[in-house]
Amino acid sequence: MVSTVIPVPPFDLVVFGATGDLGRRKILPSLYRRLAANQMPPEARIVGAARSQMSRDEFRALAVEALEAFVDAGDLRPGLVEKFVACLDYVTVDAAGDGGWRELAGLLGDDPERVRVFYLSVAPSLFGEIADRLHRAGVATPASRIVIEKPLGHDLASARALNAQLSAHFDEHQIYRIDHYLGKETVQNLMAIRFANALFEPLWNARHVEHVQITVAETVGVEGRGAYYDRSGAMRDMVQNHLMQLLCLTAMEPPSRFDADEVRDEKLKVIRALDPLRVTDTVRGQYRPNHKHGGYLDHVDNPASRTESFVALRAHISNWRWSGTPFYLRTGKRLSARLSEIVVTFKHPPHTIFPQVEAQKGNALIIRLQPNEGITMRVTIKDPGPGGMRLVEVPLDMTFASALGPEAGKMPEAYERLIMDVVRGNQTLFMRGDEVEAAWAWVDPIIAAWGEAGSKPHPYDAGSAGPIEAYKLTSADGHLWREIAA
Ligand code: BG6
User: Rounded to whole angstroms, how far apart are CA atoms 11 and 136?
Assistant: First the structure.
């Protein structure tokens, strides 16, 4: 099965901080892949903008190195690499000073129609400043878009301040806030599964759904990012954004159209319908050292840090659809497997005609986001063979890679899709300012309450499923977390 590629119009993409880690690891390789897929036109221009003094040729050489490091060798075709490199330019710009802005304006020219994207791959403290300087340099045309990525504030107050700084110079329809989870193929598939099939939607409510689990488990620790992470913790780093987006897509009402604001309105309603979290609905954890790896405290500067590398929580959505159905969320570093999944567990049949059979687990729909994207439906069938009616649970398994053929494994990565969406002017997979603020408004009080309580996160072993207390959170309601296994 071959996916259809719709070419985008020629554009100028200015990447502030292009020589940094994200630029080299994700942005440049993603653009190369889109050129290879004939989606990015060769007339597009990608302008690296950073503080380092660098010639255009040096930037091009850096880009080739980045492609060699981060694109599969088999996808690096010599003619194509040259074609890509020919799209690249570079200007030395001081994001926090006056240098380089005139040169940037000269390079971009004055075509008001041409799509212009400013991708701010820089420290968040510079977002407002750059937005302001883009305006003062006269390069922010009405056809311009600005792209930023988390952390989008540290709390509600700072998120509001950031939104205000951006909206001083850009309309909301020009601001693209990336949550790279929304660029993942299966995350978008959640909407397709729910709204393009008649099967699930009638059952998708508190009357039929016992509980929902959303897990994003990682095997990596925080090493190398300790300084950032220790100020953030799992709640700010993962829950406020990625897990919140998954929760919204799972719980939202069907939008009337697949349109950016319709979808984002529905997501916002979910966040606003969340009950305030209580401390007793949350469990924090911090991984300890083992024979193979250092512990969390070995990777951060503060030996007494109380920052959580794991969080589990029980959320309630107070609306007609979900009242009474708990949503359990958990995420953590250094867990037993890398796994992201959403599990929707349905209620038991109202009456059993097999009274001799022990309680069954009930139907569940398991949506695996990564790895091995796919859906599994847990169903109960008869255990084959003579000797009476015994029941057994089996998975009805659909791995997308086997259902869709080898092309499924070559789906564009999140950044490829998201950058092309920016060029096309499609905001559906980007967060709106009010969504970000609402998510902070929900997590802020609980982070404050943890601080006030003065309690420490529970230690957990690297390679485990997190602290045992997380199990108590679900078992208190008679539910069990699914195992974290690859
Ligand atoms: C990032 C977080 O946003 O997402 C990281 O800052 C985390 O801490 C990463 O590791 C997970 O992304 P993915 O795509 O690997 O699941």
Answer: 21
pLDDT at 279: 95
Structure confidence by residue, pLDDT tens digits, 195-251: 999 999 999 999 999 999 999 999 999 988 888 999 999 999 999 999 999 999 999
- The pLDDT value recorded for residue 378 is 87
CA torsion sign for 137, 138, 141, 142 is positive
Q: Where are the CATH 3.40.50.720 domain residues in the chain?
A: 11-149
- What does the pLDDT read at residue 407? 63
d(CA 133, CA 62): 26
Strands 364-370 and 339-346: antiparallel
Mean of the per-residue pLDDT values for the chain?
Answer: 92
Residue 463, Ramachandran bin (φ over 0: left; ψ between -120 and 50: alpha; else beta): left
Q: What is the mean pLDDT of residues 251-276?
A: 96
- In CATH terms, 11-149 corresponds, of 3.20.20.80, 1.20.1440.130, 3.40.50.720, 3.30.70.20, to 3.40.50.720
List residues with catalytic annotation: 242
Strand (E) or helix (H) holding 122: none
CA of 208 to the centre of ligand 1 (A): 32
Predicted pLDDT at 8: 92
Candidate from 22, 219, 223, 238 with most ligand 1 atoms within 8 A of CB, to mutate: 238
Domain with CATH 3.30.360.10 in the chain: 182-411+432-475
Topology (CATH) of 182-411+432-475: Dihydrodipicolinate Reductase; domain 2 (3.30.360)
Task: Give residues (CB < 6 A) around ligand 1.
Answer: 180, 218, 237
How confident is the model at residue 432, as a pLDDT?
97
Question: In this structure, which residue's CA is closest to atom 2 in ligand 1?
Answer: 237
Instruction: Please state the atom number of ligand 1 nearest to the C-alpha of residue 216.
Output: 16
308, 285 contact by CB (below 8 A): yes
Q: Choose the residue to mutate in 180, 241, 415 for probing ligand 1, maximizing ligand atoms within 8 Å of C-beta.
A: 180
